[in-house]
Amino acid sequence: MNISASQEQKFRALLGGIDADRRTLRMKEYIQHGSTSTYDHCIAVARMSYRIRCRLSVPMRDRELVRGAVLHDYFLYDWHSYRGPLHGYHHAETALQNAVRDFEDLTPCEKDIIRSHMWPLNLFCVPHCREALVVCLADKLVSAGETLRRRSRIHRTAGDAV
Length: 162
Ligand SMILES: [Fe+2]
Ligand SMILES: [Fe+2]
What we know:
162 residues, binds fe (ii) ion, mainly alpha, globular, 61% helix, two-stranded antiparallel ribbon, single chain
């Protein structure tokens, strides 16, 4: 799914510097899938959300869409060595608690995006706004791509070793 140069420019403007915020940058310390940091994953989901949004001819809160997407996995721990309750089910709530603590100006839409991004795995955390639905879809597309790239890298490495 391509994005034009002007859309990319608009996307950068919508980020409004949140991608360079020292709180957001903390996500660089954690790995999401393969060699992709949680930070890179979240920026990729924000860009994918905006790409999907550009294909839809319905009104949307673009700034909240992008900001919510950037913070959707703001859980701030290494889930590979996580010993708590099932990460898949609980990290959205942890991300929301962290985001509310660290970003005092979160809107209801941004909170909804973070809280519901694991739907339908979190069956009862249904997205309540269209921005949350878009991020929910974008997260699955980006995560699938990151996982597939990692698997093909592993297969290539295994092939090289034979
Ligand atoms: Fe997530
Ligand atoms: Fe995610």
